[in-house]
Design goal:
mainly alpha, Ferritin, 5 helices, about 80% helix
């Protein structure tokens, strides 16, 4: 059994809450996209929702293996309406940046407390966040190039679907 410092336990419980909110946030976005007839974006956000839930469950399992009972958080209602797909993806990028900051805080804390098990465990999250931020940045860049408007939404949706398909293929290769 690993002895986890109370500060680490609190930070991990907080991270569970962040990952849980992110999963709900993406789920709400998926169905906002569905309402906007953006099927490719819907698929992207549904996959993201599942992925964030998996991130949360990994932390539950790590804490349980460490002899700590994780706390299941109450989560706030995610936003459900957006003025544009660009606004939605900007909110996603903000959300991912907050999650990245929280992960970096756990890494820093783990290093300072010489909790090398947690430090090692969190390295996967560091890499995962880098990939997620890069994907969102790519989508935002493509939205800027394509522009927004009736026909532009069709092309944005197709680009997001292509990016989603690439991510799914890469995840399949990694298994």
């Amino acid at each position: 059994m690993i002895d986890l410092n109370e500060k680490i336990v609190q930070a991990l419980n907080d991270q569970i809450a962040y990952e849980s909110f992110a999963s709900s946030f993406y789920l709400a976005l998926a169905y906002w996209c569905d309402d906007q007839a953006l099927e490719g974006c819907k698929k992207f956000f549904l996959r993201q929702s599942d992925e964030e839930r998996m991130h949360m469950l990994k932390i539950y399992e790590y804490m349980s293996e460490s002899g700590v009972l994780p706390v299941t958080p109450a989560i706030e209602q995610p936003p459900v309406k957006y003025n544009s797909i660009q606004e939605a993806f900007n909110k996603v990028f903000e959300q991912e940046r907050k999650v990245t900051a929280a992960i970096h805080n756990i890494v820093k804390m783990s290093d300072e407390l010489r909790d090398y098990n947690t430090l090692n465990f969190m390295q996967w999250y560091v890499e995962e966040q880098r990939e997620e931020e890069a994907a969102i940045r790519t989508i935002l860049d493509r939205i800027k190039v394509i522009g927004e408007g009736g026909q532009s939404l069709y092309y944005i949706d197709k680009e997001v679907e292509k990016i989603n398909d690439l991510i799914v293929a890469a995840e399949g290769e990694a298994e």
